[in-house]
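We emphasize that the prediction below concerns an isolated chain of 269 residues; any contacts that depend on oligomerization or on bound cofactors are therefore not represented. The input was used exactly as deposited, without trimming of termini.
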Amino acid sequence: MTVCDDFDLAEDLLKGFTRSAIRTKVLLSLRDGELTAGDLERSLGTRASTILHAVKDMIEAGTVVRTHRGYRLTNTGRIQALMLSRLLSAIVVLENHRDFWMTHDISAIPDDLLVDIGLLREGEIVSGDPAAILRTQQIFVSQLISSRSIYGVSPIIIPEYPTAIDTAVKNGAHVELVLTAPIVEIVVRDYREILENLLKKENFELYRLDADVRAAFTVIDSSLSLGLFRLDGGYDIGQDLICTGAGAREWGMRLFMHHKKRAERVTSI
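Result of the prediction step, given as a token string:
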């Protein structure tokens, strides 16, 4: 069965989402539990008669059932609501940061995380202006030092980072870093004493990745800082996507584990 065959099977359902805004909003409103007709009227800001007409259609379609106090989703309706909610969140993220996603290389992000990109909804682009192109890195270095947990993947190195990581580890932060092979070699050469001391710490782990990664990102406490390479091949040092919240941390940790699984731990130099 091809993707076109899948579309033919799902076409009526997809049209149902787009043809009736009321049905779609009812579906999303009932996602977290049953509601009365009055609850739906207040939530949607629409006349009860219009809502009840849509609900009648949804009951006939098997996505909603009537309860003793109102309405709730069937199992099918709840699954549809969750999928639709994920899609809507992804659309919001892509629209809010259209230029970022259009002009950068996303090859370092696996498909399952691209599908879940809506988890990055609480995010903003932080850019360095021409007079202070490293502003994003300076801001982030200050956050690193005060973090309690740091999980990072990087194919680049910023001069301030090794010292910041050293300070964070001394302050008790748990740190795990995945660096590409060329960056590990630079760190061994230029920051040997710092690295030797870090490798002795129980709260520090370093991994070497023998592959090209077109992203530099770090998960700290409850936020994610994501930097990507431009489509022309150069790393965009002046622009990061900073996301906060539990969803962003979950997304960032999944991305970290994706790359960590491909890496080899470094225990000595």
